[in-house]
Amino acid sequence: MNILIINGPNLNLLGVREKSVYGSQSFEEYFERLKAEFPAVEFTYYQSNVEGEIVDKLHEYGFSADGIIINAGAYTHTSVAIRDAIAGINTTVVEVHISNTLTREDFRHKSLIGPVCKGCIMGFGLQSYSLAVKSFVN
Fold it and tell me: What whole-number distance in Å separates Cα of residue 93 and Cα of residue 76?
């Protein structure tokens, strides 16, 4: 099984930015733990702060990967382009968020990508990614 994980804008700063919201661990550190937790899964990880690059990556893997996990960051609430890219591919996509976006600012309460994803996992910290992987493996 091969799963692509896409992280959007500012998630390259995990472990550094807003530790009270996002924790003190970098995604790269967590990614090593995730790979160890699921040794039978072949993971590809991609992070970009650029909307079009995320769309390109969805197109690249959206017809061959067994699953895609996306944390689109702020683009979750603004990107029709990412939404349309997810709607246009064959691979199932699960939306994840480290924080519970429903307990944050009002503008974070609406996801444009959620309606075209299999589901959404939020609020469990980095463990949200593990829960998303389990949705594909189980």
Answer: 13
Contact 112, 70 (CB under 8 A): no
Least Cα distance to 97 among 117, 78, 121 occurs for 121
β-sheet with 67-71: strand ranges across? 42-47, 2-7, 67-71, 93-97, 119-122
Interatomic CA distance for residues 92 and 105, integer angstroms: 28
- Tens of pLDDT, residues 37-58: 999 999 999 999 999 999 999 9
Residue 22 binned pLDDT confidence (cut-offs 50, 70, 90): low
How many structural domains are present in the chain? 1
**Contact present, 83 and 19 (Cβ < 8 Å):** no
- CATH number of the domain within which 88 lies: 3.40.50.9100
Both tokens of residue 133? 């992987």
Count the neighbouring beta carbons within 10 Å of the beta carbon of residue 72: 26
Per the structure, the complete domain to which residue 125 belongs is given by 2-137
By annotation, the residues acting in catalysis are 22, 97
pLDDT (mean) for 108-136: 94
Predicted TM-score (pTM) above 0.90:
yes
